[in-house]
Structures are given as structure tokens and as C-alpha cells.
Predict the structure.
Amino acid sequence: MHKETLGDIGEKELINRLGKFMPKNQISDDCALIKTKNNNNLLVNTDSMVENIHFNNLTICPQDLGWKAVVSNISDLLSSGSKKTIGITISLVLPPRTEWIWVEELYKGINKALKEYGGIILGGDCSKGNEKIISITAFGVQGELELRRNACKPGDIILTTGIHGLSKLGFLIQNKINFGNEFSLNKRLISKSIEHFCRPKVYPNFLNNLLKTRSNKKIRKIGCTDSSDGLFQALQDLAIASNCKAIINYEKIPKVEDWPKGDKWDEYYFFGGEDYELIFSLPKKWANNLSKLDKNINEIGFFIKGEASIEFKDNKKNKLFNKTPYKHF
Amino acid sequence: MHKETLGDIGEKELINRLGKFMPKNQISDDCALIKTKNNNNLLVNTDSMVENIHFNNLTICPQDLGWKAVVSNISDLLSSGSKKTIGITISLVLPPRTEWIWVEELYKGINKALKEYGGIILGGDCSKGNEKIISITAFGVQGELELRRNACKPGDIILTTGIHGLSKLGFLIQNKINFGNEFSLNKRLISKSIEHFCRPKVYPNFLNNLLKTRSNKKIRKIGCTDSSDGLFQALQDLAIASNCKAIINYEKIPKVEDWPKGDKWDEYYFFGGEDYELIFSLPKKWANNLSKLDKNINEIGFFIKGEASIEFKDNKKNKLFNKTPYKHF
């Protein structure tokens, strides 16, 4: 008899089922929350990068991998409203044939990212295994504003801190994928894409800018997640957790100069993943204030009452969202 | 040209080298320490269990594995002086062919251990991979007494919370290793060994009993580690971190009833690993008070000034320590 496997049920259903083992008062979000007495609550996030799933020797060098492993964790902390990264613990699984210089380079990248965004190495452990796995747990301090997936409201404007699709393009270029004769990607776009894939950046000033532009001091909770699993997945996570409908204005979506047109490129844009932009929602006034202050931030749509889902304002684009989103299993 | 690999340098040297990437003010111990404002410092520990290295389908069922993964983390927290386990985050790497029921059983075991020893599931993540990896990060609150590897002092008595070797014997029995005709292990020893291997226990009252019997309130730091990598390794870690010499009295070492005699059985005892007993050192008076209060605690030797090393009081036994200790790589 075939017993149900993880491949059968898929990632979303798996997370759903695992959620039932967690106490009801826990936040089901990008980060876990540890409550402390003096109200300096801690945010905790773990992200694992598995060889041949998330990376391989051809697409990324160990120093960039170390950088990226830290950044992907800090991105989750920021998307929950972390005001400061305390530090990280590092859990490595490595085959005995791994060269010491590979580990040294990995740690150089880790320390570069910590130097850039704050935090120290608090500890770690290392085990033998058949494939390389870098698992980082990052600790941040919860700031005044709680950023949560379930805090979007009908009427809120949907915003993004930046451009999507570049990381996916970088990944394809590193894998020497042929884009066909119809495209000759220019050098600037190529190097920008590789940089986005190998050395992604995050936005440590995001929380401060949010606080600076807040239109109503009573609002302490806003809807937010990061786009590490792709823009579509981020929007879907917000819509489902907040139980409202996202309307996206395709024309307003920020694209890098020279980004080619066509369905394939829209697909990279919405489903590519590993962009580490923040996708969030704000009341109209706050959204206007913030996008005036930070020119990289763009309003791309709004939430309305309705079934948890995503639609384009321009109906013709909706066929794009019939694609299967990023799936781990 | 052959580049130096992790297999070449071994686990201890690897940990040594990685330590250089950590800030100097960090404790290099069983746990990492996160300092908080109100002096409720947090202890953090990550332990990873890798399929075919730390477990396999034949030797342990998923429910026991979940229990053991939690217990091995709590053991590290206790060995640093944690007064309360806050909770854990769970990071899984699983092949898509993994059956859902396996995951469900794993979580049942995790929750049983949390129910027994305290703490909740705070969050987690799950990735696809070729081999199963269960990585748990546990959070505890640092109690009044700081238990650290580097706090043993010449003159201190060395103590253990319990018996060693049983877990290794359980592992061998589960792997259907033939012990030869000279031994017929009795049923009680067999079931006790399997229980020690599959469902190890820890000592949540240890810290309270230490505080109850403290002879001098000024002492806030004592030498301690757990024997997850074997009794020899624990003694060596204490001796090296504290820079003193351990003298072990073989006659005083507590053994389970019916434990066979002979070099092989001494080897299981000292190098077996996964026993999760606490190995610690106390001033003489305190040691006497504690071992009177808790009959499971045994004095097994003492520290003296000298080169960081371990010796038996009975010289004939010293040949045992020429064996290679537990090695991950």
C-alpha cells in the first residue's frame, strides 16, 4: 500500500499540518517570537540552504554563499520588524571530503554580511553528512512596529521595496541557460542579475523609515513578508494570512531597465524567488509618505475585502497566476 | 595538488579553527549566550541529527528520534546552567519520499519530550534534501549558577549524574551486533540499554539540587559539560578548557548491575557517547553535600594542577586512554 509522502502533499500542506503541533498562541510567520520580561521580545529565524537544492558549486562561490545565508535570515527578521540583529548561530553539515578553504571562505562571507548588517557569531555546531547544509539561526530584537503576515487590511496599499526577477535571471545565467537568439542581454543587466543572485541586499533602514512616516501613531501592526519564495508567493501568503484579496496593478510594478517583455520574463518576475524584497501593506496616507521618502519603494496594488486571492487589475494578465508557484517538495 | 579536507583535520581542529571567527567575548561552550538587559540571559543550543550518521531506520523509530533530538538539546542547556527551557525551533531537511506518518511520529516524540521537560515549539522550517536531518535549536534561561567547561579548579572533585556505556550497548543491540559466546546479556540489561539509547533522560532538578547544597554562596561558576560525545570526551573538554589535569578513580565509576568486565566493555563505557549525563566538578564540601542528597550522583575523581590531560589513579588502566576518542569527521 502506498503511504502518503511529502512529495504527495507538497510544502504548503506540510507546513499547515506541522502548524497543528504548535501552541495556538505562537505566531505562524516568517519568524518565531520569544517573549521576555522587559518587553524586548526576541525574533528568531532559521533558514537552511541545502546543496543541489538551494545552491551548487557552479552557481555560487562559498564566500557569496555565506553572505547569502546570513542575508536570507536577516531578511526574515526585518520582515517581522526586527530593530537590531543580535547575532547568529551556525549549524553545518559537511562531507569529510569538503576542503578547509571552502569552510574558511564561507565564514568570510558570513562575517562580511554581519559587518554590513550587524550581529555576531554566537556559536555553532558541525556534523558529518553526505551533502553540504548551512543552517543559520538569527536573533533580532522586536521593534515597536510588529510586522506580520496577517496584518493586511482591506483598503491598504500594497508596496514593495524593490525590483523582482533579477535573482532568478542571475541563477539562470550562472547555470549557463541559453535564452535563445531573440534576446541579447546587455552586460549591465547580466552583472546586476548575478549580483542580485550571489550577493543579495536587505534594507536595515526600512523600519526607521516606516516609523518616520507613520501617519497614525496608534497603528502598531502592519502586514509584511519578504519575497524569498517569489513575489507571487509573498502576495499569496499575505492574502491568505490576512484573509483578503490583493489587486495588483501590473503597470506599476517596478522593473529593471532593459528587462525583456513576454510571458517567460513575467514568470521569472513573479515566481523567480530569492529576491529578499519586503512586500507590505499600509494605509494610503502612510504609503504615500513612505514612497515619497524612499524612491526605491513602489506602490503596486491594494487589498480589498474578498476571498483570499490575487488578481491583476488588467484582466488579461491573470493567466500568469495559473502557474504553479515555487514548491519545495 | 591535494587540498586539506575536513577529513584530514578532524572535528576538534575544525572547531578550533572556526572559533577564530567568533568574537573573543563569546563563550566557547556547550551553548551560546545571548545577553539581555534585565539579566535574564538566554542560552541557545543547536544540535543536528543526520541520517546514517546519528540514526537510521533500523536503530530508532521516528517517535524516539524526536524525543532524543529534544533531549540532546536540553542536556546542553542544563549543562550550562539553564533554569528553564523556553522552547525550540525545528529545522527539518527531508527527502520527498519521506512518509507523512514518519513526520507525524517525529513530532509526537518531540512533544512528549517537551511535555516532560518543559518548553514549546516556537517555529520551524522544512527543506527538501537527499538525507533526513533534524536540527533543533533550544532556548533556555541562564540560572544563577553559570555552568561552564572552563570553570573546573585544581582540588575540585569530579562528579557524574549517572552511568555510562548503556547507550552504546543499546545502539549495538539495535544493530544486531553479535557479542560472541562468552557473553549472555540478561534481559534487564538489554531492555535498559535500548531505553538509554532510544529514550535518554536528563536531570531537570540538577540545578536546584546544586543550589540547595552550595557550601559557599559566593561561588557562581562551576565546571560542567554533558557526556553526549562520551565520558572520556567530556573529561577531556573540561581538562582542556579549564587547563588542569583530571585524575579518575576507576573503582569509583558507577556501573550498571551485570555490566561485563573487560577492555571492550571499558571502551564502550568511556567512548560510547550519547549518554547525556552531566560531568562536573565541585569543591569537596559541596560535592559531599550533593552526593548525599542525590544518590545517583557519584564522585569519580578530582582535578589537580598540571598539563590538561586525564589519568587513572590506577596506572594499569591508563592504556585505555590511548584509544582514539569519538570523532565526527
About this structure: Residues 26-142 of chain B form a domain with the 60s Ribosomal Protein L30; Chain: A; fold (CATH 3.30.1330.10). The mean pLDDT of chain B is 91. Chain B touches chain A through 73 residues (CB under 8 Å).
